[in-house]
Amino acid sequence: MAILLGLLAALSWGVQGVFLKLATSRTTTLTTMISGYVMGLLFLTPFIIPSLPELRSVDATFVFWFVLMLGVNMTATFSYYRAVQVGQISLVVPIVASYSAVTVVLSLLTGESLAPLQLLTLFATVAGIAIASTPRATQGQPAKRSKGLGYALTASLCYALVFWIIGAQLREDMNGQLLSWLSFIVQLAIIGPIVILKERQRLLKHLGILALSGGTGALGYIFTNVGLGVETSVVAVLSSLSSVISVVLAWFFLRERLARHQWFGVWLALAGVVLVSSL
């Protein structure tokens, strides 16, 4: 189940990379963010009604970790969307996806154990992602290709902390669907009024691409959130395959070309997924 959820998250976020580039080029970062929250609520609300009584059992410790997670997650999402808006998918998306390595380290430090062969296959997957995500050499464009790096690095570190908090501190007290729904509704309540007041016309004008971007992003978040309660390390690494999918889709639809080493990385990452699936 952890492998399936990780791969579904990777596919959702990988496809979102292209939609996100199109959406942020036509609207603002905050407008694109709330589209994900709205779509997430539409997906989840019919299914979480039976779980609502769980909200009565939350304690001060849960609230502390939840508020911390929300703050870090909003920072991560804003940084990621801004990086895609100002940079190139082939550069910034893979950097953001490197959060998986940090999440694994945090999980191992807090007691999660993996067999040596599992560690090897996870390493192969991460290595493949890193290789596939390394941009091809382009002469005479150093300034252009450096755009968004700071945002991407910030998003990577913040996402690593977010998913570690979810897996290690929150999932024992609340199921993944309800946790996702609650985070969507709180973040929408914070950001939504700002967008409605300032960006209402642009939001309505580009509703279609925002729905696609928000829907795929929300699905990726939900699949990851649920999967982290099953096995944090495996889901974190497999979900980061989204960067490989985004690189390939950007090559096909946005005409961002892949170098030979990137194709090698794609196949290495896929081989890692097959090995993980066989364990």
Describe the overall structure.
It contains 13 helices and no strands. The model has no long low-confidence stretch (mean pLDDT 82). Helix 9 (176-205) runs antiparallel to helix 10 (207-228). With 279 residues, the chain is mainly α.
Instruction: Average the pLDDT over all residues and give the rounded result.
Output: 82
What is the molecular shape?
globular
Low-confidence spans: none
Report the C-alpha radius of gyration, rounded: 18 Å
- Structural class call reads mainly alpha
The N- to C-terminal Cα distance equals 13 Å
Approximately how much beta-strand content do the residues carry? under 5%
Biggest sheet character: none
Number of helices: 13
Number of strands: 0
- Helix amount, in percent? over 70%
User: What is the element string, with H for helices and E for strands?
Assistant: HHHHHHHHHHHHH
Write the layout of secondary structure elements.
Layout: H1 2-26, H2 29-48, H3 60-86, H4 89-97, H5 99-109, H6 116-133, H7 142-145, H8 149-170, H9 176-205, H10 207-228, H11 232-239, H12 242-253, H13 260-278
Helix pairs in contact: 1-3, 1-10, 1-11, 1-12, 2-3, 2-9, 2-10, 3-8, 4-6, 4-8, 4-12, 5-8, 5-11, 6-13, 9-10, 10-11
Short description:
With 279 residues, the protein is mainly alpha-helical. Helices cover 81% and strands 0% of the residues.
Short key terms for the protein model shown above:
279 residues; mainly alpha; 13 helices; 0% strand
